[in-house]
Specification:
This is Major facilitator superfamily (MFS) profile domain-containing protein. With 375 residues, this protein is mainly alpha-helical. The chain contains 15 helices and two strands. Helix content is 65%, strand content 2%. α2 (28-50) packs parallel to α6, α2 (28-50) packs antiparallel against α11 and α6 (137-160) runs antiparallel to α11.
Length: 375
Amino acid sequence: MSRDSNTRRRTPPGIFLIKSVRGKDWTLKSYRYIILLLTFIAYASYHASRKPSSIVKSVFYPESLKNSKVNPWPVGNVFIKEEEFVSFDRNRVETQGWYPFNQSDGKSKLGEIDVAFLACYSSGMYVAGHLGDTLDLRLFLTTGMIGSGIFVGLFGMGYFWNIHVFWFYLSMQMVAGLFQATGWPSVVAVVGNWFGKRKRGLIMGIWNAHTSVGNISGSLLAAAVLDYGWGWSFIVPGALIASAGVLVYLFLPAYPEDIGFCGVSDSSPNLESLSQAEEDRAQKGPVVKVEKSSGIKEGSGSRTGIGLFEACFIPGVIPFALCLFFSKLVAYTFLYWLPFYLSQTGNFLVTALALLLNLHHMLEITCLYKVFGCP
């Protein structure tokens, strides 16, 4: 958006309240810590809300519903005792799965849900990037997080409402994918607004751990409440991301200008240009006079975005985008199907697969650093 659009943003109400109580503002360094923490929590909750579907697959289509009783190589039927076949039959009666995913085409339906989610997520990412350039990033991110929590929770409500219609679950995942697309463009833009290139490699290296933290916490939450009904495995992570969205709304200033600091501009490429005297005034100066009005600040809407073709001409974008394409292909296959694969086959190659996932995250950090950081 152009500067003459006169778009104005509000100071986050939580920060406005704290400034009113304290009687003075925080330093730039303190705000940076807040930005890192809030964006870390935000995107970790995004990933946590994506994990339940991989955990619940084995409940929708349990191991006892496999068509064949033949164990995988090298065990085979030679080493199977008669008692184990009896136990298998008993388990088959007790565990029936969840219709329509417990039919012969259950695996295909589970795959269709994943494809629908990722298709909406990837297509929505492009739209979300453009919307993030024109809308208030704080409100945009809050809307995406709360919307994701609602539709992830609605997917889980299918258990309590006893819904067995495939299109219900498919549509919930598709809409959730669209809301999930708001996460990555928004948090990267916010971090980029607050940190200069000199520290961006270090920041990305530490901050990008939110992906692993989110995946681990999402798996733990979904598995912890699975015994109470698979619906809770979606409702709890959904409530988590919605609660994180409320935190973002209350405390996340998307731009330094929103709270009175000098921001990034063409003539001043990063926040390091903030003079020491200005930061000293923010830290040691007299008490800041807090406005009694709504705390409206100007500057958040004065940023201009670039188009897709302009972005492609940035050195390093295309080759690293291709690297991420193939690494994400492997990563999401593991993230969505690894628990189901292990429950179905009993093949415990967890260490090797976890190593591949870690290599993927290392590649992602490298790509972000090379594209956005210093040469």
